[in-house]
Amino acid sequence: MNDKQLSMRLERVAAYLDSYRKIADIGSDHAYLPCFLGLRNESVQAIAGEINEGPFQSAKMQVRRSGLSERVEVRKGSGLSVIDSEDEVRAIAIAGMGGPLIASILEDGKDRLTGVERLVLQPNIAAHAVREWLIRNKYYLVDEDILEEDGKIYEILVAEPWKEERHYTEMELLLGPFLSKKRTIPFKKKWQREVDAWNQVLKELEKGKQSNETVAKRNEIIEKIKIVKEVLQ
Q1: Maximum alpha-carbon separation in the chain
Q2: Which class in CATH covers the domain with range 3-166?
Q3: Residue range 216-229: mean pLDDT, rounded
Q4: Contacts from 66-69 at CB under 8 Å and sequence distance 24+?
Q5: Domains of the chain, residue spans
Q6: How far is CA 15 from the centre of its chain?
Q7: How far apart, in whole angstroms, are the C-alpha atoms of residue 31 and residue 22?
Q8: Which helix (H) or strand (E) holds 122?
Q9: pLDDT tens for each residue of 59-106
Q10: Residue 113 and residue 97: Cα distance in Å, rounded?
């Protein structure tokens, strides 16, 4: 494996794991991320977790090909169940899934998070679901990133266990407390796309029957559009 095999998205995720030596990558697919980190730093030990047989075998092959069988262990299992307390994992990456799925993986594996100092989470959609889980479970965001690659826009959330109480506004949960301040080009592009999509939904809702449910949905969308527009202006 060489550095060029790692997507820009995963390179950004890797940057937030650089200072950690015991890492787990959940839903590792081809184990590109742990192999990349292992090749860059010979003190890194990693677990690549994968639930599906095909990606599990691909990950094992990638680890062997990279000459990292002594330091990167590929384990088959669901979510955080691949981590044991004796592994002493200090940082966990979960990348390339929907926000609700990442939140459910964290919820189901809460008991495996003891001693974990950092979560690096890259939801493909619905990042607000991840932020909501973090705040409920006493993790706080220390950074966020957003990038565009091959026409898709990805958010990266970096969280650590709470040291002091922190509350997020509705706007911060939706858009991200760091991202809404940075307001980069990919951020503006993402949320303009979202506003355009919501406006299309509003047009469809107006054509249909006006039940209590559709009125509530319409009001929710209008509120979201208002929040986004205020930040984009």
Answers
A1: 63
A2: alpha beta
A3: 95
A4: 66/1, 66/35, 66/38, 66/39, 68/34, 68/35, 68/38, 68/39
A5: 3-166, 187-232
A6: 14
A7: 15
A8: strand 118-123
A9: 999 999 999 999 999 999 999 999 999 999 999 999 999 999 999 999
A10: 19
